[in-house]
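#random but structural
TW: two for the price of one
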Amino acid sequence: MRETLEKINDCLYEIPKTGKMNVPARIYATENMLNDIFNDAAPQQAANVACLPGIVGYSFAMPDIHWGYGFPIGGVAAFDIDNGVISPGGVGYDINCGVRLLRTDLVKKDILPVITKIVDSLYNHIPSGVGSTGPLKLSGNEMKKVLKEGAHWAVANGYGSREDLDKIEETGKMTGANPDYVSDHALNRGKAQLGTLGSGNHFVEIGYVDQIYDEDKASRLGLHLDQVTLIIHTGSRGLGHQICEDSIKVMLNAAHKYGIFLPDRQLCCAPVLSPEGQQYLAAMSAGVNFAFCNRQIITSWVREALAAVMGAKARTINMQVVYEVAHNIAKIEEHQVNGKSKKVCVHRKGATRAFGPHHPDIPSSYRDIGQPVLIPGDMGRYSYVLTGTVNAMQQTFGSTCHGAGRLMSRTKAMNKAKGRLLYKELEEKGIYVRASSKETMAEEMPEAYKNVSHVVDAVAGAGISVRVARLKPLGVIKG
């Protein structure tokens, strides 16, 4: 497949339409990233997605692309509402895994003397790790309210304020969610996990703004040099995983029922407007709302954890939501296709919505600068704040990358970490880390990921995002 790759420009390559592909597949990347990208089957997965019925334009892969279930992680695909499909593999198991950025009125020098205490406090306030459970024990009926109301449920129950909701994608509440399509098994898995971080690549990071690229946009987002920021990265926990698991069984039967050609069984799907397609969309939306609520509650724990350490300075923290994005989601959106407005089902799996300026779905205070885009890196380097562009609306259905993207499998990372004191290595860089296990530290070590700066260079070079600010970590808690 590498041999057939065609260069469109310095940041965009194309896999030509061949065989059963309905459209070409496009990879956003710089030339020096291609060897890593073609080290696994992710490009083939992008080509496989192009075989699904009703796909519009291209099958897209972002520069953080790597192998996933069915769709590559870092994949984007839009499908015609009338004759296209919806696929659980295009969203993934961690429905609405996403990122929230918080800003404060503190600066770096305010927290450096107490950074270890802050990280310890975060770790003690926020349940993390495999199967972690929190202090909230909801009834089945209350859980169903969470699945319908999302972050709005959290605010109504004292976790944050209405101002938080204005800065969340979909205002923290996906319409069309139907808890009746969520199995009892999924509900039971999620009941005790609300307000928990989970495991794997999920984290809470405290750091600071170390570089500004666009003063005007940074100012509009309330960001300035040396300002203390926090990032929350987690999703829908066991509930979302089970919704996906349950849906895959239904979709395998649906693909057979509707005679859909699958180049890979993991791409099982159903027509968007079919009963199976609508049922998945409603269940997925419920999982989306659980994740929105989860991050809102964790934000409350973060506020409490920081206040507990800062003491007399707690009044000056003034922690506010900059923005929150989902990066594992399918949504019905209107886009311009061949000069006409068209409703499509956009799958973003390990990809972020990046709507350009003046789109009505962007919070009014940010509307003229474009949607904020949050790109976390690994725990040893940087994270970025970008904004969406008109080019993204024209090229990628308003989509961009979502993070650094894995470079090594978890097994390979574990082997590479043997005999190393990763905590110590990071401390020597001025980064204090608390993790639930040594295994997590090994799996998530910085070298396991691509350099997020290279990923951002590619999407900025392609014009589908604009750099605003760079954030550097000082402390991290991992699941």
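TW: number two ↓
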Amino acid sequence: MRNLQKLAADTLEDVLAGAALHQVLPQRVQKLETPGERGALQDIVYGSLRQLGRLDAWLDALLERPLTDPQLGWLLRVALYQLAYTRAPAHAVVHNAVTAAGEGWRRGLANAVLRNFQRRRAELETLANGQPRAHWSHPDWWIQKVQAEHPARWQAILEAGLLHPPFTLRVNTRWGDAEKYLQMLTEAGLPARQTGADAITLDKAVPVHSLPGFDQGWVSVQDAGAQWAARLLDAQPGERVLDACAAPGGKTGHILERADVKLVALDIDAARLARVQENLDRLHLHASLVEGDAAQPDAWWDGQPFDRILADVPCSASGVVRRNPDIKWLRRPDDIAQFAAQQAVMVESLWPLLAPGGTLLYATCSIFNAENDDQVQAFLMRHAGDAVRCPLPEPLSDGSLLPDAEHDGFFYALLRKT
């Protein structure tokens, strides 16, 4: 456990300094020998980031003066997370943290802080609940923005950001249906329920290769909210389709599972494009993979118009922070405007590639208006003569799918070229 605490603390320090969580954590996970240790490390890191606002408040209250040793601070946050949110024995958490702290004053301080937390737990919970940043464990500016833009749902949105994300699968309809796969999961002793047309959510996450038929392409891991994209795009057999910003290929695969189309999967990152190919190989599907910038089609477009375009644009990812909890601590308020400007350029660049009568599905995993409805309204004003917004089914009548226990947060707008 001492090794886990130190690895987790080092990971948190690197991530909050700006390193990418999806790159740093796998490097640390590789240092562990057993699946149990690897899973525990991931839980500690992700959980500490989700609850970082509360951990910060507790640590501040437990210290008599600001801590001058950042590494010790991260170690204490990790231990506080374990004491409050895991089943690890408290005596073992404290012992290992004290040992990992080192010698001298560090050892004594670690012991005092963690013992005091155990004694003052109820008092510290009350104190943290009185501070918005600690209570909701999001930055103050983020909380205020969600309150202003979603006044009726802001608390539920922030609460969803603290949940462990659901483990949801997409059944490959070329193989079978959700009912059939649910039966296979039951026989395998894996409790699950249907949460979408092709979506099944397991009660508990499991290694993907232990899932029946995963390696054969029968199912893929994909959030139920993300599965709306291919359904709304509704590509028909024989159509020419562009999946812009396609990596890692979840939506690409779903489009191809639903219909035999001529699909171009575009991404600016060659390494991420390779992941698209890996996913397609597992699903036994084919697409033309193109490395290029969606905002600069002159460099890669062959001049043939597309019947459908999925513009899954780069965004703040504010709707998926429980899966990427580092995002909420690293984003800054002015990042939203920068994303919005990038999105506007991208959609303007892709629109000429769409055939008359064709549809473009604008998609984000954001909950912020500047990236969503404001963006679409501004586009429609610029294209009053050649674009209309198509109605979407419930629960997407306004395009927003706000995060809850069943799915992440997304926004969709279907635009038809007249």
